C-alpha cells in the first residue's frame, strides 16, 4: 500500500525525550510531520527537570532533515498543557495529532502506597492527558479534524502487583478515550489507545531477559497508523509489543434478565451471567 505520510501536519508527542515517545516523534518526523517534542526531563519517579532530553530528540530529527521544536512544560498542570499546545501553534500554526505518552512510576504494594504516590502518578498520566487534550480540543473541533492517541497499559487493563496508582490512571485514560471518541465523532476527531509492551527506562528493571525482544520501535507503527488521516478507527485499544498487535476490547456478556431479580437469583445464575461465549463489544460512538 502507499506509504503513510504526514506532510503539512503537526504532531505533539508528550514524554518524547526518550523511550516510546522518542520513537514516535522520530518516526512521525521521518514521515513528514512537524513535531513538538515535549519532555519535562524528569527522573522515572517524576522528580527533577531538564530540557536536554527533548532537545536531544529535536537534534536527531533536524539532523535527519526533519522539523521539530523542543518543549519542557509539564503536562501535570493546566498551564503546562496549554503551553505545550501554544508552542505548536506559535511555531507551526496548526495542530493535527496529539500523542499522550508522558508518564512516571511510583510503584508500591497497596498496603504501603501513600496518597502522594497516587496523586503524583494520576497527575501526570491521567490529568496530564486531560490538560494537553483540553487545550488541543477546540483547535481540532474548529478545523473538524484531529487524531489523538492515548497511552494506556496492560496494568490498567489487566492488573499488575504494586501498581494500583498506575493501573487506575491508565484505565482512566481508557474511559476518557471512550467519551472523547463519542464527542469528537461529529468533528472528525478520532481517539484511540495503545497498551505498549516495551523496554524503556520505566520498564527495563522489571522486564529482565524478556525485555530484549521488546524494542520500543516495535510499538511506534501502530501509533503512526492511528495518527494518520486514513485511519477511521476510533475508541479502539491495541496491545502492542515485540511485533505482535492485537485488539483489546470491553465486552458485555448476554447474561440473564429477571424482573424479580434477587441476590439468590444472581447466585443461582452466576455461571450464566459470567459466560462470555456470546457477547457484544461496547465503547465509542456506537455504544449508545
TrEMBL record:
Gene3D superfamilies: NAD(P)-binding Rossmann-like Domain. InterPro entries: KR_dom, NAD(P)-bd_dom_sf, Peroxisomal_Beta-Oxidation, Sc_DH/Rdtase_CS, SDR_fam. The keyword Oxidoreductase applies. It holds the Pfam family adh_short. PROSITE patterns: ADH_SHORT (PS00061). Residues 9-200 form the Ketoreductase domain. SUPFAM superfamilies: NAD(P)-binding Rossmann-fold domains. Keywords: Oxidoreductase. Coiled coil: none annotated. It comes from the Bacteria. Belongs to the short-chain dehydrogenases/reductases (SDR) family. This is SDR family NAD(P)-dependent oxidoreductase.
Amino acid at each position: 500500500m502507499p506509504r503513510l505520510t504526514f506532510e503539512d501536519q503537526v504532531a505533539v508527542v508528550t514524554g518524547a525525550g526518550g523511550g516510546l515517545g522518542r520513537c514516535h516523534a522520530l518516526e512521525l518526523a521521518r514521515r513528514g510531520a512537524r513535531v513538538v517534542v515535549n519532555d519535562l526531563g524528569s527522573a522515572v519517579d517524576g522528580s527533577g527537570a531538564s530540557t536536554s532530553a527533548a532537545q536531544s530528540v529535536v537534534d536527531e530529527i533536524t539532523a535527519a532533515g526533519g522539523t521539530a521544536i523542543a518543549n519542557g512544560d509539564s503536562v501535570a498542570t493546566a498551564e503546562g498543557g496549554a503551553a505545550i499546545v501554544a508552542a505548536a501553534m506559535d511555531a507551526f500554526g496548526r495542530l493535527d495529532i496529539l500523542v499522550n505518552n508522558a508518564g512516571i512510576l511510583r510503584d508500591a504494594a497497596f498496603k504501603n502506597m501513600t496518597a502522594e504516590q497516587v496523586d503524583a502518578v494520576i497527575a501526570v498520566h491521567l490529568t496530564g492527558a486531560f490538560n494537553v487534550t483540553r487545550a488541543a480540543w477546540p483547535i481540532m473541533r474548529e478545523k473538524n479534524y484531529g487524531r489523538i492517541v492515548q497511552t494506556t497499559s496492560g496494568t490498567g487493563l489487566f492488573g499488575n502487583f504494586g501498581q494500583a496508582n498506575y493501573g487506575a490512571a491508565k484505565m482512566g485514560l481508557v474511559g476518557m478515550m471512550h467519551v472523547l471518541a463519542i464527542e469528537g465523532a461529529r468533528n472528525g476527531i478520532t481517539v484511540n489507545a495503545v497498551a505498549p509492551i516495551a523496554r524503556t527506562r520505566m520498564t527495563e528493571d522489571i522486564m529482565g531477559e524478556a525485555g530484549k525482544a521488546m524494542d520500543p520501535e516495535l510499538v511506534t507503527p501502530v501509533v503512526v497508523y492511528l495518527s494518520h488521516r486514513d485511519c477511521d478507527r476510533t475508541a479502539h485499544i491495541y496491545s502492542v509489543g515485540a511485533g505482535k498487535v492485537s485488539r483489546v476490547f470491553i465486552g458485555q456478556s448476554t447474561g440473564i434478565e429477571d424482573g424479580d431479580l434477587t441476590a439468590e437469583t444472581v447466585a443461582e445464575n452466576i455461571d450464566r451471567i459470567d459466560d462470555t461465549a456470546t457477547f457484544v463489544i461496547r465503547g465509542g460512538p456506537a455504544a449508545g
